[in-house]
Every structure is written in structure tokens, then in C-alpha cells.
Amino acid sequence: MSSLRDTLARHNDSEDSLIEQFETTLTIRPSTAEYEEDEINDISIDHTVLRDSTINYTRDHSIVDISELEENERISEQIPKFKTNRRYSLLPRYSVIKTVEEEQEEPKQEEIEFKKTPSPSLEDYYSRQKVDPKYKDVLRPSLLIDESLSKYQKTFTDFLDSNPHIEKESPRFKNDQDRTLIILSPYSSEHAFGRKWVTKSYLSTIFERPQRLLASCIGVASAVTMFPFYYKVINSEKRGSIFASHVRKIHGRNWPKKLFELCLESHEKLQADQLEVPDDWNTGDIYLNPRTINAIEGVIGTIEHAVDSLFHKPSIRQQQPPPPPPSSQQQQKQKQKQANHNLVFVVIRPPGHHSHACLPSGFCLLNNVQIGIEYAFEKYGVTHCAILDIDLHHGDGSQDICWERAGFTGDYGKDENDEITDPKSNPRDEYGKRFATYPKVGYFSLHDIKSYPTELGYATKENIKNASTCIMDHDLNIWNVHLQEWNTEDEFYKHYQTKYVTILNRANQFLNSAKKQYDEEYQKYLDQLSKYNKYLFKPHLYNGGQPLTKPTPPPPFKPLIAISAGFDASEYENPQMQRHGINVPTSFYAKFTQDVVKLAKIHTNGKVISFLEGGYSDGALSTGIFSHLIGLNNDEELLWNHTWGSEQVMRELIKGCKKNWKPYKKPNSDITIWANEVIKLGRSMMPNAVLPSNFVYSYQPEAKDIPVNKMVKELLDSNGKDSVISTSPLKVDPVDDRKVMRHTRSYYKKIREGDDEEY
Ligand SMILES: [Zn+2]
């Protein structure tokens, strides 16, 4: 054994010694393509922080509370069981059922034109206001945005070419719709911190940063390499409008406009070294730059694109049977062309679940999941949606918007003037409640009760009560479960089976009773209709001679399940973010997600839409998304292999999140060969998210002489444009005499020896 290790150490440039055998589903061979070399050095702000071994995890050894067990048993009697299956499938499954070659949907490379989608909101705003034309230039998106995803497609083809056995051996589904759609939002990286005056150490505490997208892509690539034909990765080129009705329905008339204007104004403010967000906001968590507009529009467009992928084509069952088949193959093709996807994961930032209707909070500017649900209602008539939130933090904003949907006033909600529908048509009663409106949304969350927004300093009675609310009445369907400490995975899964599964059970209860209620309403409608029909024949015999109005049917029951997929509860989250030692093993994301897919098969024809929320260290994001996607597919079995969540895998993946990553020249173990391929694929997905760790947004209209790295050059050459890459304007520890924004950090308190300053 030691001789093998010695040999490995000798032959490898920097490969770590292998403690554990790593199992991939497929044998993966190194691809031949060279990768980019960077001239620009990455200066060391480290967001790949590993768990701090000095932190003491005080774990609860107590056995699960009996009353809670009984409660769970009672609930599970009426609803399907979600048992924890601790048996992982360790062996590859080669269930190849290959039928028709997928139709070539992507345009050919030569046909792709280099163009960035313009801002719909800006055009709208221009037409109504006097806006300085300079903003057109200020808002020009990064030239690195690879809308057509051409670089990824090239890298993926290269990966398959180097591994011809994958084509033969990988399992795949009969229909394209069964593949999980992963939609990247290339404009998301435009939202970046822009206060040039801060110190390097302050910058290192900005956790919600564009580089999170690179770590996310590496997580996506990890799943893609394991099951290349289970997933389809696409970019959303669409830019939605911040003034769209589904955004204003959630956030009111005024707030989207205010956010838009603050983004525009941030141009002058940042250039003048002034704080760009209002003083009364959480200025430590929330930052803006003018191109945040691009990111927001990209996020809204991506959400719309994702919902469209679930519903925009009529379902196969609803379609007329095709005319006498010319051939069964053509029929199959026809079906594939018309099919929607069932499982969608959207890679977006900034996250959304803390955002209230009229207050941004905890990095979140708009509530992405609620906007998505509203769009699904407006465009496709989705009547009910269960949000399952597994972020470390309580999604106070998502929950507050559910109170508003139920007819109550939100904590930071819209006032009457803010509503886009006339409040007179549905006025409040003497207790401040009005009728609940469609869509009906249930919120079911698993989180740490000690973390934000119930962190010390924010832990008001109200916040603690909100994060612990459990109610399934008064038009409210809200259930909050708190994460527990654990020592072993077995202990964790005991919590899962007895406590955490409750959020799935409650979501199930919500959708069950919604269906029951719909059936009752529909029966009532049929009764009224038959009465009405009789009345038409003999009007004088009914209703005392008074005219009867024709009854209207209830909207067709159309439920959906959404996941607020945050990965900051991961065992690999930065201890500065996750300070209470309460976390989940990486396997949790696969297990939980697979249970959600099972729930969806019962209620929503298998439809699940998952939104990226939190997750701040490269390790938590890459491994968490890897695990989440292994659960978010249509395979019947849980495909997660326990070696995939090992610290060793995480250590390999986070190497690829550094701007100046270099692949192993001669990888000679399964894990390093695999990591090389994963990282190449992940980095090719969003070239604009491969940024130095000290990247700060700055507007540089005339910079011409900054060196262009190889990848940028390739992209620009292929697009026939000439440009520059901006470097960080940040000075190495300038004197920060401003001390502005040193208050109000909701996520982070700096705790350092000999430094008692907290902000
Ligand atoms: Zn979070």
C-alpha cells in the first residue's frame, strides 16, 4: 500500500495522497484538450475555507422526542412514507434504453452571432423618463458572457470524444423530457461588489460574490460527468423586465422602480466613493452596481425560461392522437419535440428567499421563487405551489409573501397604494384579512434557528416566532423545522426520518387537501350548473322567480413543487457563515431531493423547479449542487455514492474555483482524472464567472492596455470583437478612513483574536 502511495506521489505533480478509493460510475479518461493559462495572478482572498477543526461541535445525543415521533406516525398514516434508504447504489447501472437520436436543437456554431440581449426595462424606462444616454454604455454587459454556451459545448464534445465508452455505457432515458434541465443565468455574474475603498479584509467577508457561479458550475459538471445523458445544460439568454406584472404582483408598484433607479444612481455614487445603498438598509449585506440591472433581468428571464420549459408545450396526454403513423420513429420524434421537461434547476444569483415584498434583505433583492410561481400562475394557470426550502437560513421573505397571499398584511409588505390590483375589489375585514387569492402557496422550511434572521443581534421575538411558525389553516400552509446536531450520519438520518421529513409530509398534506378542496368546489359547481340548466327550462319554478346567474367553474387544479435550494447548511460551508456547527452531510441533498421528486410524481406529474438560494463556500456549493442534481433526476434509484461526498472530493473540486487553476498534467488516480474533467467542463460553462478572488466592479470606459487572457481572447476572437478585461481596482489594504457600512452585517460578525470590533 505504501509503495503505491509512493509511486503516486512520485508521478504526480501535486496530487494529494489517496486515503480512500473513489468510485465513479464510469471510468473516465483524461481528455486531450489543453486548457487556458492565465497571466493574471489571483491574489489570495480565500473563499474555499475548509471546516475549522478548532470549532467544537457540541452534538446532541438525546433520542428523538416521543411525542414528535407519535405526531409523525399519525401524519404518515394518511400519506405516503418517505423512508431513508441508507443503501447507496455503489455499482454502475447500465440500463441503456436508447431509441431515437435527440434532435439537434442548438444552432450551429457558425450561425451564432455575438450579441448581448438588450435591457427591456431600460428601454421601457427610457421611453417614459429622461435618462442620460451614458447609461447605455455603463450597462453594456461583460463581453465574456457566452450566451450561446459554445465553449461548454466544445468542452463537452471533447470529453465524450476522449471517452467513447461513455456513449455506449451511460444510462439514458427514452424521452428527452425525462432529462433534468439545468438553466444557467449568464448575466448573474454582473452583480458584483463595487465599493473600491474597502480593505482587502473587508472584501473577503463579502460572501455573496459572482465567483459562486463558478463553484456552482463545477457542481453541475460533477453530476454531468457521472450521468452525461441524464442532464441537459443550457444558458438562458432571455432578459426579463423588472417592471413585468409578475414581478410587481409580488413586489408592488413602487419597489421595482426604486431598485432600478438605485442601480442607475449607483454609477455616480460608486465613482465618487459613496455608499450606493440607502443608509437604513442592511448595507453590509446589500450592495448594488449599475449592471446589477443586467443580473436582475437575467435572473427574471431565466426564471421565466425555466417555467416555460415545464409548461409551454401542451402535455402529451392532452394532445390529439397523431394521424396514422408514417413510422413509429417519426411519431417518437414528434413526441420528443413537443415534450416539456419535468425537472429543472436554475443557477441564479443573487438569491431571493430573504427578500420581502418591499424590503431587500440578507443578500436578496427580489424574491425569485415567488416571482417564478406568480409567472407560472399568470401564464400557465398554476393554482398551487409548495415551496420546500432547505437553505441554512429561514426564508423569512418567502414566508412573509405567503402571509400576503393569504390576505394578511406582510411584515414588510405592500400597502394599499402599492398593490397592482385594486384593493377595493377584495377589501380587508375588520381583522385586516381579505380573501386569499390564487396562486395558493405553501412554505415548508428546514433551517438552523440560531442563524440569520434569528442570529444573535437579529433574534427578535418576532423573527424567532416567524422561523418557528407551524400552521395549516386560515389560508396559510407554513411549516418550519429546525436542524439538529448530529455525530454520525446514522444519527443524522434518524433526525431525517423522524423530524426533517415533516416538511415533505406537510407539503403532501397541503397538496392533498388542495386537491380535495378543488374536487369539492368542482362538485359544487356541477350541482349549481345542473340547477341552472333546469332553471333555463322552467325559470318560474326556481329561485322564487329571480333570475339565476350561470355558475363559473373553479380554475383547473394545477399544482407545482418548488425547491429553494440553498447549500449553506452543508458540512463544507465556511465556518464564518455557519457558526453554530449545525449542518447536513452532503448526501442529504441527494436523498432529500429524490424524496421531493417522489412527492412530485404523486402530485404534479413529476414537475419540480429548483432555485439556487444560498451556499457561500466553494466546497459547499460544488458538492451540494453535485448531490442535489444526483437526486434531481428521474432514475428510480438513489444514485448517490458515499465516496462522492468525501472531503477528498471537495478538496479536489475547490481547486478548480481558483482563477488561476491549472489542471494536473499527469493525473493518475480515478479522482484526479475525474476532477480534471469536471473542472474543465465547469469552467467552460460561465467564462464570465472565472474572476480573481479580489474582483471589484468598476466602470472602465477607456481601458485598452490590460492584458487579455487566453480564454477571453478565444471568446472575443470567435465573436469578432476586440475588447479588454477589467482588473480589480482594489488597492492592497488602503487606509479605510470611512468606516461607513461597518454596522449592520446580518450574516457575518468578524471574530478575530485581539479584534473586538464587530460589524
Ligand atoms: Zn442561506
From TrEMBL:
Biological process (GO), any one: positive regulation of transcription by RNA polymerase II
Any single Pfam family the record assigns to this protein: Hist_deacetyl
Ranges where the Histone deacetylase domain occurs: 242-505, 557-627
Protein name: Histone deacetylase domain-containing protein
GO molecular function, one term: histone deacetylase activity
Top-rank taxon, per record: Eukaryota
Gene3D superfamilies, per the entry: Histone deacetylase domain
Cellular component GO terms, alphabetical: nucleus
Chain intervals for the UniProt region annotation (Disordered): 315-336
